[in-house]
Amino acid sequence: ARSNILVLPGDGIGPEAMAEVDKIIAWTNAEGLTAIETDVDLVGGAAYDDHGQAISDAAMEKALAADAVLFGAVGGPKWDDVPYDARPEAGLLRLRKDLALFANLRPAICYPALASASSLKPELVEGLDILIVRELTGGVYFGEPKEVVTLENGEQRAVDTQVYTTHEIDRIARVAFELARTRSNQVCSMEKRNVMRSGVLWNKVVTATHADFQDVELSHMLADAGGMQLVRAPKQFDVIVTDNLFGDMLSDVAAMLTGSLGMLPSASLGAEDATTGKRKAMYEPVHGSAPDIAGQGKANPIAMVASFAMMLRYSLGMADLATQVETAIANVLDAGIRTGDIAGSGITPVSTSQMGDALLAE
Ligand code: NAI
Ligand code: MG
Question: Please, what are the domains in the chain?
């Protein structure tokens, strides 16, 4: 089937990493493996320089109409002083908000060849493959009231409010259970039901939703204990589902189990369309625009290419091809081909485009 994706390369190393995905798409299209039509637009500082906004209404309309959005990275010192609403990150936030991307997927995969780059002992992480499903549009980052009040005695009181509804918990749990079915069929839900009302509700709703997914194994863990277990024995997990705040922290912990920022992809998914059954989705590397290495051909394109693989799997229904892309990444690393961020000592790093060519050859 034909698919139509919006490509937003952005700033800094965003376009450099995206160029390597462009090569792969050109090849899979030419081989008849895919029929991907790409439309390219500006986002971030590049969009601001062009028309004074971090993303145009026209680009937003294309994002809403596309099967998926592939996003590079935005930002850089050049735009430090632009108006707040036009800052590069505003483009990213508008995409997440207008596409209503409530489910953030952060895989932590440890390729055997990079096990020694982990913060943990190699044997604890070698072959690690976990997926953190973080609720992205609710919880304490968005709950009202959110304010700072000055009290009568002159003290200040800051308030953030953790709020979750049954609907919000149910829909993120469904995403986690559905994803588990495509993996090792295990979901671990993390909250703090011992001290938080929202934790009690979270636990209850996830358990109730599980009735529709009896084939998936469900466990519950207190989020602090979950953090400990992630560092003690991460391979015990398959899919972890958790709220916005705990997910933010736990996914950063999981990221460090795997090595470099240049390796980490992510996906953000929205609600299923009632008629087409398709989800709005955006795929992006976890890293930023890396101004310190931009324009030098040093960027590692693997996070961007792995984000493309996630798009193949979750938006375009091409799980086999996604696995082939991920196998190509593993093989290239096994062959000792490394960009500077993962080279370590004794390996001469290759350039961004040499890494892209090596992936394509695999
Ligand atoms: P960063 O992720 O851009 O860079 C952090 C460090 O990791 C740098 O030393 C960089 O060279 C290195 N690095 C990152 N990605 C790499 C790759 N693919 N290959 C090799 N090395 C890589 O984060 P930083 O420096 O905090 O932010 C730089 C700019 O990016 C800022 O303007 C920030 O606001 C923006 N940013 C944008 C994000 C996005 O577009 N989603 C996310 C994070 C930051
Ligand atoms: Mg974070």
Answer: 1-105+260-362 (3.40.718.10), 129-256 (3.40.718.10)
